[in-house]
Amino acid sequence: MDLDRETALIVIDVQQGFDDPYWGERDNPDAEANIGRLVGAWAEAEAPIVLVRHDSRTPGSPLEPGTPGNALKPVVADAPHDLFVTKHVNSAFYGDPDLQAWLDERGIRRLVVCGIQTNQCVETTARMAGNLGYDVVLPIDATHTFEMEGPGGIRLAAADLARATAVNLHGGGFATVATTDDVLGG
After folding, report:
1. How far is CA 165 from CA 14, 80, 122, in A?
2. Residue of 25, 27, 38 lying closest to 165 (CA atoms)
3. What is the pLDDT of residues 157-169, one digit of tens each?
């Protein structure tokens, strides 16, 4: 993939609070390393990087502003970036400043989306981007998620949720699901 000024890397919620046991069992222990590889490649190419942080409004949340968990993880904390978006909901398109306006002002039409949680904020942002007409690539190995419980006690493992996201996005036409190596050409 060409890393140029028309291809932005969107890094979603790579925050310290996701190391809290509160979330449960996670998948993909290599996610942060792959996110770091992507950030490094974008920085070297001087291509646009957008960092996104979730500022939870839920008291006691591991992602609550003003707590250590709200801080970005070291892999991205000092990363060069062109835009820093804060949000309170799943989609980075509902953050501040306005992500879509920023992208459109710069003629950016391709997005590579990575980060935490695969099936929550990453998937929601990728779906919205696809609906807004962006060409979206999601390197699934540069994301991770946690096990979750649904209605009636249904419990899904993190790896199952990540696979479902891959199918939802790729099969649904929202994004091309790839690997970090695919994106970086290695």
Report:
1. 18, 28, 9
2. 27
3. 999 999 999 999 9
Strand partners, 86: 53, 96
**Which residue numbers are catalytic?**
121
- pTM to 2 decimal places: 0.97
Q: What is the pLDDT of residues 23-65, one digit of tens each?
A: 999 999 999 999 999 999 999 999 999 999 999 999 999 999 9
Cβ(4)–Cβ(45) below 8 Å: yes
What are the distances in angstroms from CA 43 to CA 17, 81, 126, 129, 183? Answer: 25, 8, 22, 22, 15
85 three-state secondary structure: strand
Full DSSP string of 111-159 = EEEEEE-IIIIIHHHHHHHHHTT-EEEEEGGGEE-B-EE-GGG-EE-HH
